Amino acid sequence: MPAVQYELAVDSWATSDRVFIRSPANDHIGSFPLPFLRKGGDNTWAYIMGVIGELVDRSSDEVWRIEDENGREMAGAEAPDAGVYTLTRQDGRIEVQWSRGPEYFRRSQAPKPEGSFSTRSDSKRSSVNQSRFRAAVIARDGTCLLTDVDYDNCTACHIVPFSRYDVYEAILGIQNEIPIFYPACGLLLRDDLHHAFDRLEFSFHVKVGHTPPVTSTLY
């Protein structure tokens, strides 16, 4: 079965109208192509604010607003229109502090923009733990979760780099016997998409109301 090819987002949305979000100091925070918002299943200001919340570091009790050029607050359930909008803070400060960003394979190393075809998270490597991990993820998923390609052309990859024990500890709230080779810590992706995922070229966004129930057992 030939690999499915997708047009890059930067190409398909290059000339489309966008929603631009800036800080009061006129720093660019993010931009959202309207076709992406309208076809992505969550065409609301609430979604944009959720993404902004991942880009900008703020305390849980801090109130922020997205305002148009007239100072009108954008309501969460409304569909956005193209234009330039400002993220304002309740305390009136104009600067923003950026969040740490995606976690890479090493705590002290930033992601490389040029990418890498390293097999650091490749479950096809010959080790007992990796082999069991791959077999368990294949048994659960069967095919690539994005393209439905058969498992023979897929990699069982870790959602969080398995070298980052500190991230697993923070997410799971445990410090001993980190279950990094449990299938719940991985997913099955087509080989080329696995490499793109490793290079942080795409990510998965959790939508409120669409999250599977969480149990205390990693299966």
Can you offer a commentary on this structure?
This protein is an alpha+beta fold. It has helices at residues 9-12, 34-39, 45-55, 128-141, 165-172, 191-198, and strands spanning 18-22, 28-33, 64-67, 83-89, 154-158, 186-190. The strands form 2 sheets. The protein has a 4-stranded mixed sheet. Strands 5-6 form a two-stranded antiparallel sheet. Strand 1 (18-22) and strand 2 (28-33) form a beta hairpin. The chain is globular and about 60 Å long. The protein starts with 8 loop residues before the first helix and ends in a 21-residue tail after the last helix.
Give a brief description.
The protein is of the alpha+beta class. It has 2 domains: 72 residues, Phosphatidylinositol 3-kinase Catalytic Subunit, Chain A, domain 1 (Ubiquitin-like (UB roll)); 118 residues, no CATH class.
**What's the total helix number?**
6
- Rounded to an integer, what's the Rg over CA atoms? 20 Å
DSSP strand tally: 6
Given as residue ranges, the uncertain stretches (5+ residues, pLDDT < 50) are: 110-120, 211-219
State the end-to-end CA separation.
31 Å
Q: Percent helix among the residues?
A: 10-25%
Please tell me the overall pLDDT. Answer: 78
Shape: globular
In N-to-C order, the SSE pattern is HEEHHEEHEHEH
- The structural class is alpha+beta
Please give the domain count. 2
Q: What percentage of the residues does DSSP assign to strands (E)?
A: 5-15%
Describe the sheet with the most strands: 4 strands, mixed
> Strands of the largest sheet, in order across it?
2-1-4-3
